[in-house]
Amino acid sequence: MRVLVADPIAEEGISHLRQCASVDVKTKLSPEELCHEIPDYDALVVRSQTRVTADIIERGANLKVIGRAGVGVDNIDVDAATRCGIVVVNAPSGNTVSAAEHTMALMLALARNIPVADADMRKGSWSRNKLMGSELRGKTLGIVGLGNIGSQVALRAQSFEMRTIAYDPFIP
C-alpha cells in the first residue's frame, strides 16, 4: 500500500504508517500537483491545509481511503469520495485534550483578569484593585455537552476543586 501524507503530521504518526505501508511525505502541494500525484497512491492523509476536492478524488484511480489527521472533514469532498467508493476517516478525539486545556486556560484568564492586566501593562499602568480576580476553587461550572471534550473539561475543573454540573441530551 502506498500512502501520501500531504500535510505536516507528527513523526510518530508517520512511523506508525511506515510499519505497514510505503509512505511519501509531500507537503504544500498545489491542487494541480496533488492531482498529478494522487493516481499513484492507495491512501491520502491530510490535516486542514489541503482541500481534497472532487477533481482530486476522481483522479485517485487507486485511492481507497482518505484520512483526516484531525476532527473535521470540511476540507474533504465526502460526497465525491463516497461516489467513488473511497472511505473517509478522521480522528474524532484527536483534539480532545487540547480543547479541554484551552477551555481551562481561557477560564483562568477571565477569572484572573489576565486580558485587563495585559492591556494595563502595555499602557504602563498597574491597577491592582481591578486585577484581583477570583479563584476557580469552589465555583460551579456548567458544561453543555458532556462528550469527549466536555467530560475532559469536567475532569480538569474537578482538579481545581470546582463543582461541575452538566447537560447533555444524549446522556440519561
Outline the structure in words.
The structure is a single chain. Helix 5 packs across helix 7. The protein is an alpha/beta fold. It contains seven helices and seven strands. Strand 6, helix 7 and strand 7 form a beta-alpha-beta unit. It folds into two domains: 89 residues, Rossmann fold (3-Layer(aba) Sandwich), CATH 3.40.50.720; 72 residues, 3-Layer(aba) Sandwich (Rossmann fold). It is elongated. Strands 2-1-3-4-5 form a five-stranded parallel beta sheet. Strands 6-7 form a two-stranded parallel sheet. The mean pLDDT is 96.
Radius of gyration: 22 Å
Q: What's the tally of helices? A: 7
Global morphology: elongated
Let me know the largest β-sheet: 5 strands, parallel
Strand order of the largest sheet: 2-1-3-4-5
Under CATH, the homologous superfamily of the largest domain reads NAD(P)-binding Rossmann-like Domain
Amount of beta strand = 15-25%
Percent range of helical residues: 25-40%
The N- and C-terminal alpha carbons lie at a distance of 44 Å
- Mean pLDDT, to the nearest integer, reads 96
What's the SSE blueprint?
Blueprint: E1 2-5, H1 11-18, E2 22-25, H2 31-37, E3 43-46, H3 54-59, E4 65-68, H4 78-83, E5 87-90, H5 96-111, H6 114-123, E6 140-144, H7 148-159, E7 163-167
Parallel strand pairs: 1-2, 1-3, 3-4, 4-5, 6-7
Helix pairs in contact: 5-7
Write out key terms for the chains shown.
172 residues, alpha/beta, Rossmann fold, 2 domains, five-stranded parallel β-sheet, two-stranded parallel sheet, 7 helices, 38% helix, elongated
Summed up:
This protein is of the alpha/beta class and 172 residues long. Helix content is 38%, strand content 17%. A 5-stranded parallel β-sheet has the order 2-1-3-4-5.
